[in-house]
Design goal:
Helices cover 3% and strands 60% of the residues. It has one helix and 20 strands. The N and C termini lie far apart (46 Å).
Length: 393
């Protein structure tokens, strides 16, 4: 029997894992293989924020990602395969204590689950454009998804300006287990997601690059979390998590890269603005310094700041039921900020590359742009560690 869990954390972790595998400067004539192991562990929920008054363990994820990039003349095939094991407890609902202060109710039993994900992409030049066609599949105990997409890029001005765009689609099917969080959990549901983006990159000079991207995403279908509840004070009980049946998201991102020859290092600055029709507005700023020394070592320290507003229907708990039937106390829809710091160390050994990395993340109202009147007690802190092995042929 499954138990309540944090469904949205897993795709985010997989995306970070895949991004960490990127090896800059890969020559098209080389076959590249990578393996990355990641251990993600959320900090315990403090007893002072728990309805039980006792601290509670949270989510732990162990991830193994295998990647192969196989070039064929001016074309290439990229395959990513991820296997994850997940365990722990997750936030269930929030309720008021005797003083009206929100406290977190956690799932009562530990989650034990596996997930497998495979993504493939074929890149090729066609009609003066560089094309990429992708297809992927993901499965776990109660969840299955298939996705695909196409991207194209066109270089102008002798390669100094490149414009790109893409379309993507994903179909997700959810089959939650009855009794996971209550006897009234849904039998099954599905969701369609459409994504479109356009962007451009400018080579300003031999040391400087600027990239900008605008993306639009539409989710349609079941967007609630079947393993979460919301507390209604007037009823002295809970209802199922209920969110709108559609969601439109816009994101504008900018990336700045500058090589500092005197230090043999590169400065990376990334900014992202996000807005959706659930009235969530978010800002992300990341700074990293990529330092190469002794020709075969690279160390990359980085810091990232994040801040978001809340969804219009969110509340830690509700005095009475909303007239539109919506309800969610999910901390990921609450107003908060987050600060993270990470460091990545890599060593080249001939055709091999070894790497280790660590990231610490802390979500808190203290990091938010605007004042947060009521802090969600389920905000998370985590530590992520990774080991990396790469080989070029």
């Amino acid at each position: 029997m499954a138990t309540p869990k944090s469904l949205m954390a897993k795709p985010s972790l997989s995306a970070l894992t895949a991004a960490a595998l990127a090896l800059p400067g890969l020559a098209q004539a080389e076959l590249q293989t990578d393996y990355l192991y990641s251990h993600y562990e959320e900090g315990d929920l403090p007893g002072g924020r728990a309805a039980s008054g006792q601290s509670s363990e949270r989510y732990t994820i162990d991830s193994h990602l295998f990647r192969v990039v196989a070039p064929f003349d001016d074309q290439a095939l990229t395959v990513n395969a991820t296997y994850e094991t997940m365990s722990g407890a997750s936030p269930w609902w929030v309720q008021p204590d005797a003083n009206g202060r929100p406290v977190q109710v956690m799932s009562g039993a530990s989650i034990e689950e596996e997930r497998f994900d495979v993504q493939g992409a074929w890149t090729l030049p066609l009609a003066d454009l560089d094309w990429s066609v992708a297809l992927g599949y993901s499965t776990e105990d109660d969840y299955e998804a298939i996705n695909g997409g196409i991207e194209g890029a066109y270089a102008l001005q002798n390669g100094q300006l490149t414009v790109s765009g893409g379309l993507g689609y994903s179909y997700d099917q959810l089959d939650p287990e009855v009794g996971a969080s209550s006897t009234d959990v849904i039998a099954d549901a599905d969701k369609d997601s459409f994504t479109a983006y356009g962007g451009a990159s400018w080579v300003i000079d031999a040391q400087t690059l600027w990239q900008s991207t605008l993306s639009y995403t539409l989710h349609d279908g079941y967007l609630s979390d079947p393993y979460k509840r919301a507390f209604i004070v007037d009823d002295a009980g809970t209802v199922r998590d209920a969110r709108p049946g559609s969601r439109e998201l816009w994101a504008l991102s900018a990336r700045f890269r500058h090589y500092v020859a005197a230090a043999n290092a590169a400065l990376h600055v990334d900014y992202r603005y996000f807005h959706d029709d659930w009235e969530i507005e978010a800002h992300t700023l990341e700074l990293s310094w990529n330092q190469v020394f002794a020709e075969t070592w690279r160390v990359t320290p980085a810091v990232r700041w994040y801040s978001q507003s809340q969804a219009y229907f969110y509340a830690p708990y509700y005095a009475s039921a909303r007239s539109d039937g919506l309800a969610s106390s999910d901390y990921r829809l609450s107003p908060y900020g987050a600060l993270s710091a990470r460091v990545d160390l890599r060593k080249a050994l001939g055709e091999w590359e070894l790497g280790v990395g660590a990231e610490w993340y802390d979500a808190s109202a203290d990091y938010a742009i605007e004042s947060v009147d009521v802090v969600n007690p389920g905000l998370v802190e985590y530590l992520s560690l990774n080991l990396r092995l790469a080989r070029r042929f």
